[in-house]
Fold this sequence. Notes:
Layout: H1 18-57, H2 61-81, H3 89-117, H4 123-143, H5 148-167, H6 172-266, H7 275-299, E1 307-309, H8 311-326, E2 330-336, E3 343-345, H9 347-363, E4 369-380, E5 391-400, H10 407-411, H11 430-440, E6 444-449, E7 455-462, E8 487-491, H12 495-507, E9 511-515, H13 518-527, E10 533-537, H14 545-555, E11 560-565, E12 579-582, H15 587-599
Parallel strand pairs: 2-4, 8-9, 8-10, 10-11, 11-12
Antiparallel strand pairs: 1-3, 4-5, 5-7, 6-7
Amino acid sequence: MPCRRRSPRACDEPGTDGVAIAVFAEQVDTLYRQMPVALLVNFANSGLVTAVLTPLSGDAAPLFWFAAVTALSAARVVAWWRYRRPDRLGDLRRRSGWATIGALAAGLAWGVGGALLFPLVPRIGQLLLTIVIGGMCSGAVVLNASHLPTVMAFLGAACLPIAIRFAMQMSALSGALAATIIVFIVAMTIAARHLNRTFIEAMRLRFELRDVNQRLLAEIHRHRATESALLQAQKLEALGRLSGGIAHDFNNLLTIVIGSLVLANERLDAGSAAAPLLEEAVQAAERGAALSQRLLGFVRKRGDDPRLIDLCRLLSEVEDMLRRTLGPRVRLSVAIATDAAPVEADPVQLELAILNLAINARDAMPDGGALRIAVDKRELGSTAADGLARGHYCVVEVADSGTGMDEATLSRAFDPFFTTKEPGVGTGLGLPMVQSFASRSGGAIRLSSRPGRGTQAELWLPRARCPVAVAAPAGAPESPVPRGGARVLLCDDDDGVRRFVSDYLDSIGCVVREADRAETALRLIEEDAGIDLLIVDYAMPGMNGLDTLWQARQRRPDLKALMITGDTAAMPVGVAGVTVLPKPFSPAELGRKVAEAAAEPGAGVG
């Protein structure tokens, strides 16, 4: 059958009942699906009637009637053949109207034709016509019950001319026959209305159940997406806890490595050939420490820590990580304006935002492609539609040559949990996180994309008014470390860290006592009232560093303190009266922090 079936777009007509339109569309569609049967029955019955009446009448009138019925049926066949299920309510009404007109014409062919043939045939022929027309009307009620106007048009046009013909004979028998036909019309009308109402109620229930089922499926999808996101968040939290422990141990090792290398370099003779090698080793260890802190920042839950950021320096630092993440099939190019101004934002969150955009671009290029990251300066003269205020901005542009997005996908790109990736591959939270970061930083994220033409993401961040402090070049002499004879109690469970810190403090004139656990440190504080400064590691078995310090200040309220830790994110926020030194640190950094902590007045831990 050539009729192409498509789901009706009920929302095409504003202000209408979507279910009612869908039911009406199904009525018209069912009518046209049943039309071949009706046309075949119409043609067969008209042929049989013509074959019987022609010899009975001895006239060619039945043949002319048959030709008219056949021509009309052919026109209806053409209308059926060209039928395509409409999408709009206006088209549905036109198709419905044409079907009703066709049924009316077919009914008139039988009714008027029968009335004209009645005088030409004997009673047996009249009885045959009456029976066939009645059967055709009954069949029309059954076949076309889905569409009441078509049934009524055929029923009235086929029966009323015969009833009028009998009524015009002005005899009791003819009057009774006319009344019988009227009763038949009424009975068929009642039956047709009942069948039509049953069809409509069944279709309405079907479409309402379909809508409920679609909403249920959408709710199940949202529930699964939320469940998947929760699982990812739990995995990330577990990874954060694991990474915190690993980072602490790794930073302990780097503390020992960096400290030992620096001390060894200081003890070399001037001009020693080993000095450059030791300096390279220190720089490599410091890069490892920076990488550890960056990865830790990605997986740990933390608040924003806005700082002045040199975008040129930040992109240079993360470029290697991006290349490893993107893989060899993605050609990465980085272009930075030489006069790009600094921005004020959380550096870890900014790196994570750039990484999210780069990963999205990589996933949009399954067969590889080009990814360009550029930094430029822009200026807005007035407030933009997305809420960006007028002013000066730095824009980080991430553009790929991937598959791109259509308008529908682009409009939902920032919806939480919306993703075009396969289940289990993406959570749909990458772009919403970037948007949230940009908003918190006073900026915005803009997306533009076309199918097959790639995607361009622009991260707008306000330019900072203050310049970024220029870091000292590698190999530049550090500021001198204060020296003094402070009495220091060092508490750390790592033997290598204690040995390095103790050796260095001893070299700058401090008197050092060591403890490998909190209980030992508290006992030494009770025994030695001359201890000026407590250096304690935060993460230790049993009692942690803050609890140790709190207990120590219960005994010595004026005790100075320096907290060292390999995972600053694990420490509580808002700790007062404590100087913190993150691991790994160089001997010079340790010396300056010791002097800073010793110069501060003692304070309670709160």
